[in-house]
Structure formats: C-alpha cells, structure tokens
Design brief:
This protein has 383 residues and is α/β, with parallel strands linked by helices. The chain contains 14 helices and 16 strands. It starts with a strand and ends in a 6-residue tail after the last strand.
Length: 383
Amino acid sequence: MKTYLTNANIVLADMMIEKSSLLIEDGIIAAINPEVVNDVRQIDLSGKILMPGMIDLHCDALEKEVEPRPNVHFPLDFACAQADKRNATAGITTVYHALSFAHEELGVRNNDFAAQIARAVHSWQPHGLIDNRVHCRYEITDETGLPVLKQLLADESMHLISMMDHTPGQGQFKDMAAYRDYLTRTYKKTADEVEVIVERKLEAASGAFARMEELAHAAHTAGISVASHDDDSAERVDTMNGIGADISEFPVSLEAAQAAKAAGMSTIFGAPNILRGKSQSGSMKAIDAIHENLADCLCADYAPAALLVSVFRIPELSDLDLPAAIRLVTCNPAKAARLFDRGEIAVGKRADLAAVGIPGGLPQVTDVWSNGIRAYQAMYDHG
C-alpha cells in the first residue's frame, strides 16, 4: 500500500514548503507534491511539520535500560525493546546505541558484557520499530578490549567506533579530583578502588596509539566511520585526525572545535547541552559552537527526548533557521556516518520521517515512519 501524506509543512534540506504532500512507496519517498496519486492510504497531517527522521550518532541510554541501578540488570532483549520504543517516540529513526568498552571496573562497560549488549541490539533489529545500530566506545587505555572490538566488527555488530581516553589529568577529566568524584558518585567505588583504577589507567596509557591505529584501519576497511572523543586541544585533534578519525565528539574547547573543522572532521555536540544551556562536565556550551559555525551534528547523548526540543529552540537562540537546525540531526549526521540513503526529504531517499506538533508550545513527535512503515503515533490535545 502506498502512503500519501497531505497538508504538511515539509522541511526540505534548505527550506520549508507549506501545505504540501508526500508519497511513500516501497519504503522510499516516491514524490513530493505529486500531481496524480492512485490506490493510496491518505493521512492528513493537519498542518504539522514533516521532517526527516532524526539520526542520533551517540546515545548512552541503552546502558541505563540494561542497568537502571548499579548491579541491577534487566534481560537484554527487554532493554533493547524499551530503548527502541523510547527512540521512536522521540522521532529518532536511526540510533547508534553508544556502548562503552572499558574493562571490568565499570559495570555494563565491562568488555564482555558490552559485547553481549552489542549482539543483543543486532538480534533485536529485525523486530525493531526503527533502525538500531551500535556505536562502540573504546577506552584506549584498555588493551584487552581490542580483540573484542575486532570480533564485533567481523560479526557486523559494530556500526561506528569512537576512541575514548579517560586517562586522569586530561580531556574531560583534567581535574584529578573531579575524576575521582565521578567514579565514586557514578559507579559507587570506594576510595581504595578509585586509586587502583587511576593507577591502572595511567600504566595502560602506553601502547594506546598503536591500538587506535589498528582499530581505525580495521573500521575504515569495513566502511565504518571513526570518531575521537572529548578532544581538548588542537594537538589532540591532530593526533586523532592522523590515525584517520572522521568525527570529533564533544570537543571540550573552542580551540579543539576549530581544529577539528579545519581538519575536515565532523563535530558532534550534545542536545542536553543546548536544552540546559551548559555542559554537565564544564566543557564549552554547544550553542557557542553553533554561533561560531563549528557544530555539524547534535546527538542525544544520554536523553533521546532532548534532541527534538533542542533543535526547535536553536532558531530562537541563534541565526540558524529551522531547516538549518534540523540538518544538525538529519543530513549532517547521515554524511558523518556514511549513510547516503537517508537524512533528507528527497525523492529516492529512504522514507524515515517524523511529524511534529506543538501542543502547549512544546514540540512533540506525533507520527513516525521508519523505512515507510508507520512506527509510532500519538494524539496530543485530543487531535
């Protein structure tokens, strides 16, 4: 059955066309404002905004679905199903579930456990409402993680790789006291346990560069993009770009973001940073990166629902119009992740779409189509 969406304000790559229509056929956008349609299921969107489904390159929320409290674990298929629904309701049609591989000290971030979650995402995908993918976050100070990640790559259970360096004293944790507090507060570690972790990370820093090079080469051979993480200086960006990093996730300073852009890397900032007006870790404000034309993509980070609302607020906070703000969560991340079949409302593209209403002045997703199939519908204000 063909689906014909009418009376929509459609967001194209660089403009919005009002009171328009769109035809979906066989999972693909077949036409925009077609002159003739036959044998269709017609859906009147009543003036709602119709935008591409969002592409989220980094979301940690699945880890919380698996382990909602320390050492409390849900079945992995159950957790994947909940994360899938959560993303669909947020208007995210392609999500890269970010799973950290950081050895045994960090619960679900244990290498073997994280690999089980990655494979569970892959197993759930045939049943999912949206396109669920895996973003593996490799803690480069862990030499035991490399073979695990290379096997996931061989099994086609990895779709994006980022290199994390949480060695105390640099990056996100320049302040050693802040790092100790993070481990104590987030993972309920004792002071003695924290000291063991710190010493181990400092010792394991040697050999990290060679492991990064090997993993980046393997990822590129498989056609997968590589990201750096928490770049804190131009020198750090140069190093990561030198091993082939395509993306700079969460550059922590203006200098690092400028260096990433100059190197031709895509930059990613967190939507919660926009919504809250600041970084949770004291890094640069995402809106400042937008003002300086240094932000290519927004990601949900840890809050899928924050993505849409942040995008709709950007035109109020910057010189970007709504189509430009929407590119931060659609065509830009599609290009960064080498997904050339989606991210834009255009004939021939995959029909991943989200309809947005503004009940009570708050942007909310009312309908979602994933690969042309209606995945979600909500009724706000009884309409």
